[in-house]
UniProtKB/TrEMBL annotation:
Residues 6-60 form the HTH lacI-type domain. It comes from Cyclobacterium amurskyense. Keywords: DNA-binding, Transcription, Transcription regulation. This is LacI family transcriptional regulator. InterPro entries: HTH_LacI, Lambda_DNA-bd_dom_sf, Peripla_BP/Lac1_sug-bd_dom, Peripla_BP_I.
Length: 348
C-alpha cells in the first residue's frame, strides 16, 4: 500500500500540539521549548517529513522553477544546451522542468500549457520545426511570465532570444569550400521556417556572391526532417542522376554524415573529389572517416546565456521593473578536419 505524504498536520496530531507550534519549532523560534523542538525534530526524522516548498513558494507567488521546451534530449547539441541550463539554474537557486517537443507543434503547445499550469517563474524555448507563430505562448505574456527563445527562433523584436551568428558561420563554411577549389556546392537545406535555417542559407548565398559564383537552384536540396537516411538517399539520387558537384554543405552534421556515407558507398573519394562540411560540430565529427569539418555551435554557452537572461527578466518583474527584449548573438567558429581539407591531404 502506498505511503501517505507526511504533513505538518500529521506531526502535530501525533505529538498532540498545534500545526503553528510544529512550524515554529522547525524554524527554531525562541518561544518554543527545547523539549518540544527535540520531539518535533525526532518525529520529522522518523517519518521522513519533506517540506512542501512548492506550496510555500506559491503563497509567495514564486515557484523557483524554470520551464524548458526543447526539440530533442538525446542529441549532442541539445544535451550540451541542457547542461548549460541545468548548471546555471542550479547555481541561482532554480529547479528545471524539462519537456521535449520532438519537433512537433502539437506537443510544443501541450507542454506550454503544462508548464504554465505548473507555475513556472519563466520559460526557455527552442521552437519546433513546425512552429510558425507565438500564439500558444501569449498566455505567458498575459500573466507577465518571461519567455526567452534560443537556437531555433522566429524573427521577432518583442521576445529575448539567444542564438549564434548562423549567417556568418555558414558564410565561413562556404568560403572555406571555395578556398579548397570548389565551385559547385550542394546545399542540404533544413525545414523552411526556423530562422537559423534561413540564415544559414543566406550565409551560403553571401559566399557565392562574394566570389562571383552563380547560385544554381539545382544545388539546393531540401531535407526537412534532418535525418541521416534522408541526406544519404538524396545525395545518392544526385550521384546516380549524374548531377555534377564538388562539395556538400549540410545545415546539420547529421545531414553531412549521411552525404558522406552516400559518397563513399558510390566510390566518390572525400575530400579528393568532393569536400564535405557540416554544422554544429557534434562529437560524431571526430568519429567519421575522414573526420568531418563543421561549424562549431557553443551549446553549453547558449544554455548558460539563455538561463541568465531569463533569470534577469524574472528579477526585473519581481522588482516591478521594465524589461526590454534583447537579442544575444554568440560567435561560432569553423572546425576544419579531413573531410574538406584538400590542402592537408596533399601533404599527407
Amino acid at each position: 500500500m502506498p505511503k501517505i505524504r507526511v504533513t505538518l498536520k500529521t506531526i502535530a496530531s501525533k505529538l498532540g500540539i498545534s500545526v503553528p507550534t510544529v512550524s515554529r519549532a522547525l524554524k527554531d523560534y525562541p518561544d518554543i521549548s527545547k523539549e518540544t523542538k527535540t520531539a518535533v525534530l525526532k518525529l520529522v526524522d522518523e517519518l521522513h517529513y519533506i517540506p512542501n516548498n512548492l506550496a510555500l513558494n506559491l503563497r509567495k507567488n514564486k515557484s523557483n522553477i524554470i520551464g524548458v521546451i526543447i526539440p530533442e534530449v538525446v542529441h549532442f547539441f541539445f544535451s550540451s544546451v541542457i547542461k548549460g541550463i541545468m548548471q546555471t539554474a542550479e547555481n541561482h537557486g532554480y529547479s528545471v522542468l524539462l519537456t521535449q517537443s520532438q519537433e512537433q507543434l502539437k506537443l510544443e503547445k501541450k507542454h506550454a500549457k503544462l508548464l504554465f499550469s505548473s507555475h513556472v517563474d519563466g520559460l526557455l524555448v527552442c521552437l519546433s520545426d513546425e512552429t510558425k507563430s507565438f500564439d500558444h505562448f501569449k498566455i505567458f505574456e498575459e500573466f507577465n511570465i518571461p519567455l526567452v527563445l534560443f537556437d531555433k527562433v522566429l524573427d521577432t523584436d518583442t521576445i529575448s532570444h539567444v542564438i549564434i551568428n548562423d549567417r556568418e558561420g555558414a558564410f565561413q563554411a562556404t568560403e572555406h569550400l571555395i578556398h579548397q577549389g570548389c565551385s559547385n556546392i550542394l546545399f542540404l537545406k533544413g525545414p523552411k521556417d526556423p530562422l537559423n535555417t534561413i540564415e544559414r542559407f543566406n550565409g551560403y548565398k553571401d559566399a557565392l556572391e562574394k566570389y562571383n559564383i552563380p547560385l544554381d537552384s539545382s544545388n539546393i536540396k531540401s531535407c526537412p526532417h534532418i535525418t541521416r537516411p534522408e541526406a544519404y538517399h538524396l545525395v545518392e539520387k544526385v550521384i546516380k542522376e549524374g548531377q555534377l558537384f564538388d562539395a556538400i554543405f549540410g545545415v546539420s552534421d547529421i545531414l553531412s554524415i549521411g552525404a558522406l556515407g552516400a559518397c563513399q558507398d558510390n566510390g566518390i573519394k572525400v575530400p579528393e573529389k568532393v569536400c564535405i562540411i557540416g554544422f554544429s560540430d557534434s562529437e560524431m565529427c571526430e568519429i567519421t572517416r575522414p573526420q568531418l569539418s563543421s561549424v562549431y555551435q557553443p551549446g553549453f554557452e547558449i544554455g548558460e546565456k539563455s538561463t541568465l537572461k531569463l533569470i534577469q527578466e524574472i528579477q526585473h518583474i519581481e522588482n516591478d521593473g521594465e524589461q526590454k527584449a534583447e537579442q544575444i548573438i554568440l560567435k561560432s567558429s569553423l572546425k576544419i578536419r579531413e573531410s574538406s581539407n584538400r590542402i592537408l591531404k596533399t601533404f599527407c
